[in-house]
Amino acid sequence: MEGAVYLAEHASKKVANAYLDEFERIAGIVETYPALGTSEDGIYRSYPFAKFKYSLVYFEDAYGPLILAVAPHRREPGYWKSRAPQR
Predict the structure, then answer these.
(1) What is the block-wise mean pLDDT of the chain (87 residues), using blocks of 10 residues?
(2) Are 45 and 39 a contacting pair, CB within 8 Å?
């Protein structure tokens, strides 16, 4: 994951590992309770990390949530939409 690599290079491996732990925690929440994320455009949802300025962006399909991006809050909102399947 790019965010973890960036943090390992610019902060520390400890911070990068904390980021990965937070990702796993949020992914587990989204997998269990996909409707908890904030709706964006009525299709996509986002769920913010508690300890980092990132959000997990996903949508629900027949098999469960599909993660599209781990979006840093400092980037342009919706930059990840070019990666999203057209629905």
Answers:
(1) 82 93 97 92 91 92 90 79 69
(2) yes
